[in-house]
Amino acid sequence: MGAATRIAGKDLKLRVRDRSAFIMGIVTPLALAYIFHLVFGGTFSEEALDLQVGLVDLDDTQVSQSLGEALSGLEAEGVLVLTDFDDTASAEASVEDGEIGAYILLNQGLGAAAIQGQPFTIEVVGDVDSQTTTQVTSSIASEFGSAIERSQLSVTTAIALGQPPPPDELAIWGEEAALRPPAFTFVDVSADTRQLDANTFFAAGMAVFFLFFTVQFGVVGILEEKQGGTLARLLAAPISHTSVVAGKAILSFALGLISMTVLIVATHYLMDAEWGPPLGVALLVVAGVLAATSIMGVIAATATSADGAANLGAIIAVILGMLGGTFFPIGQGNDFLARLSYLTPHAWFMRGLANISGGAEWTEVLPAVGALLLFTLVFGTVAWVLLQRKLTR
Amino acid sequence: MTAVLAAQGLIKSFGDLIAVNGVSFEIAEGETFGLLGPNGAGKTTSISMVAGLLEPDNGTVHVAGTQIRTNSTNGRSDIGLVPQEIAIYPDLTATENLRFFGRLYDMPGETLDKRVEEVLEVIGLSERQDDLVSEFSGGMQRRLNIGIGLLHRPRLLILDEPTVGVDPQSRNAILESVEDLSGEGIAVLYTTHYMEEAERLCDRVAIIDEGVIKAEGTRRELVSLVGEKDRIRVTVTGDLVEVARVASELPAVHEASPADSGVDVLANDASSVLPELLSRVAATGANVTGVAVSEPNLEAVFLHLTGKALRD
Ligand SMILES: Nc1ncnc2c1ncn2[C@@H]1O[C@H](COP(=O)(O)OP(=O)(O)O)[C@@H](O)[C@H]1O
Ligand SMILES: [Mg+2]
Fold this sequence. Notes:
The structure holds 2 protein chains of 2 kinds. By secondary structure, chain A is mainly alpha-helical. Chain A has 16 helices and 4 strands.
């Protein structure tokens, strides 16, 4: 391996002098991530984090108060900001002023209707300009509504069994059922649906997108040596063919690792990107760089010239990057695209990162790391074989 | 003399094309051996097999007794290769290029440092050693290209058309440094399509065309092989017919005939016949004003063997 590291070291020197790897691996992704952060970062995070929700509780029973408590719980978790209103008019005014995005109206008689199994309504009034807030508020309201319905059902079932409970107990059943915390999907967010905040998304998206361009500067070196005639010298030297290929792979890996590390640190300090627990991020980055190196290795092996490899590599990197959701989150509302995106290492990288963002355990990254290592195994083997063969023909 | 290089029955095809078809030759220590042939003759293919870059379809290569294979590093340290294309890194300095390749040959630090200095001296680049190669002239790059091949003191140095595209001055410097190599006991394999280079540098020459060695030997052996003679033009005033008659009486003279303002004499070896010839001519009373000798060259041999000119 001495020869491999010597070749990699020589190439690293050349790449440093050439500066294009530096521009591709660090300057461009950092600049783009920062621009995205400036342009979209603000609006993204406000929408996602500052849901301004109002509550008008005209019923004021134990049942209706349970919604208020649930909303307060969400407020404590930072999901939304809750404002209580005494009447509909003041809530309406607040929506019009843009202070809140939507409010929930609980009319008088809700608690009684809930206990007696009568029909009831819960109203949600939202601002057309605050679609996200309105949607989230509606889903909270309908969750609450179904919770009440479920409790009514259990009461009805009990009656149907021929053992009508005493009326006061009946009331308690209904209340207890309604009081059960509604299963809001984002209260206990499962790993599948966790999202990166906007800043981290742009930072990670650009980093992994450009990673595929950066690692090219290693493996494409084989084609450059071939075109420059120096490959003959390497092959004539008392070193094995594998060490030539290994040298290029080592350089790809090193360039990828350097660029990712610099980008992670820089975006953390420049634009508050939260990459997550260091161990998890490190595993993900190593696996991601390996996968990128393998795929670009296959491209270098199939291209006939360094320029050809760069062009083909760029096309593949853009397609995979788009499909993998490095520019915009993919697949929301489109299951097919979402499933398709997992054919790209990019999607696994972004997913792995989302899984460990927001204070989760580093082990949550393991499925994504496994997937990336699978990419490495498949494409890496093909690249290894093809590149060796490319040396002598 | 032991052979440093022994190439036996090398054959290599690319698809339907048989690029090299049964090439064999040996080179001894201190000997410079030339492969002379036009573009596409199979010179580069042959030496690629010798250097272990290309696996022959058939045949073997031994360097200092070790068989050279593409998939083995055995024997490679004994070979220095100077590829036809300039094979150096333009974005490294001359020293960095030398040091990088030197390390691939596992030269230990101190030896390498000393040897790099020596080689820079030999190729005349000491002054420019820390400049990027991209700033070098074509001739300087060619010299560095050769220097890298020499660096690890190989027993066999292979030079593939090292003077192509070089200005006359650099070319002369290159030829001189190759001439010095045989003095150091290095076996040199030199390919070229320049007849003059083969004649000047090589102890033995193999004429190769269409993948086959047509003839091999010293220049004189090759020349006599095809029956070409030295041509002596004696410029005289006097009886030209008489001069021609006298000249043709000499046993070493093949033919003598009057030509404008002199006599043309064909002989096997001009240098041995010249003193006798001139004294005979003087004896006729003719006044010799000039003598010009033209020896048959490899160009003529090539033409004779292949029916075509060396350069198209
Ligand atoms: N890698 C290759 N693939 C196909 N044909 C080749 C290859 N290398 C050389 N040739 C052909 O083999 C013949 C000999 O080439 P080469 O050895 O380079 O000749 P020379 O060095 O004497 O100019 C030429 O016809 C050339 O086109
Ligand atoms: Mg050639």
